[in-house]
Amino acid sequence: MEHSFTSFFTGLGLIGILIGMMLLVFVVWSVIWSYYDARRRGKSPWLVALMVLFMVWPVGLVLWLMLRPQKVEQQV
């Protein structure tokens, strides 16, 4: 009986590690995406990327999506 509980929690730990790694990849991707999106729209890319990262991550991303300029500047 003891062995089944141990293997259950070991499996749960592996699933937690996988979910944590996927979340970390998504956070890094959203910071990189916001950096390039801000640069394309003519805003300070470092400021936007730091805002997305440090403003309790999902709140910063949603805030950037709501406040970002609609018009994309033309590259010459």
β-strand percent reads: under 5%
SS content category: mainly alpha
| Basic shape | elongated
Count of helical stretches: 3
Q: How large is the radius of gyration? A: 19 Å
**Regions with pLDDT < 50 over 5+ consecutive residues?**
none
User: How far is the first residue's CA from the last residue's CA?
Assistant: 70 Å
Biggest sheet features: none
Number of strands: 0
Please give the domain count: 1
Order of helical and strand elements: HHH
Average pLDDT, to the nearest integer? 81
Helical residues, percent = over 70%
Question: How would you characterize this protein structure?
Answer:
The chain has one domain (2-67). It is 79% helix and 0% strand. It contains three helices and no strands. The protein starts with a helix and ends in a 9-residue tail after the last helix. The model has no long low-confidence stretch (mean pLDDT 81).
Q: Helices and strands in order, then pairings?
A:
Elements: H1 2-40, H2 45-54, H3 57-67
How would you briefly describe this protein structure?
With 76 residues, the chain is an all-alpha fold.
Features of this protein?
76 residues; mainly alpha; 0% strand
